[in-house]
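User:
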Amino acid sequence: MALPNLVSIIVPVYNAEKYLSRCISSILNQTHKLIEVILVNDGSTDDSGAICDRYAKWDRRVQVIHQQNAGPSVARNTGIAAASGDYIQFVDGDDCIDSTMTARLVEAMKNEVQLVICGYKMMHRRMTSAIIPSIPGVYANAAFLKHVGELYKNILLPSPCNKLYDAAVINDYDIRFDKHFTMGEDLLFNLAYLNVCDRIHIIRDTLYNYCMNHNSLTKVFKEDLMENQQVLIGRVQDFLQRKNCYTGDNHYFLAIIQANGIVNGLNNLFHQHSSLTPRQKKAAIATIISADNVKHAHFSDTLQSRLVGSMIEHKSVNGIYLFFVVKNMLHQRLHPLFYLLKRMNLSS
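Assistant: Predicted structure:
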């Protein structure tokens, strides 16, 4: 039988040896002591597995599961299957959490709340930015759904790491991460959870620390980025339409997200690992800016979005091409700053 307020903290681990001790120590130092830490070593080829085993020897609250590499979705699902707590919390192996995070989340789970969402900090060397929810409070499901678009746009909805879940809800409805998605599986998990949970508590505390390292700063070129983004936006739209909530602010913020996705798709063409020739990039730009989803996009979120939106309106393929060539030249020299500005919605 699960102990009252026992929290299962699930950590998918893959080649995180440089940051893993910091992560695990921050979890074990929680003021809420009634925790079990489930470390899922997802086929790491560095010393991560050995680090996990050492912590399991030092603290009986730590459980280690070693598996062949299958991706973070499968690793988190493995952790869910092994969890015995009343609540489930997720932490990524290269991040860390404030010492009071679990205690604050558990405290906020009172009065039949089934999901808690908090703010978080993004940290890179001496640069820190806080993502703070602007709509704190306890919401019934129907009232909460009116804010899904805003939370999605402000990067508070997709991640599982700034949340606390009711384990009974996850298990009763067999909610799992979709292993077929390599991008956005977190968002789909949260939509499935929101589909069945009744009460949500949003708190302003920035308790999770998203630590930007070399791996998070250096993203790979994704040929199917635009397609994946459109699938995810479509899933959110479908979800809101089924709930009769694809109106007002939700419609407005989804149009902004649509525009940001188009900008990201254009930017992806100029990734340093892209093998596309200039001619192919221009052809791809022409295809992207003439697609139907452009009609539903609202290019107003950032200065970059407004500039690109104006060039799209004028069908300026060459202008868009030149803009992203110059941007990515600067990006290579000021990589951490660009990434931080992006996460703060000042760039894309």
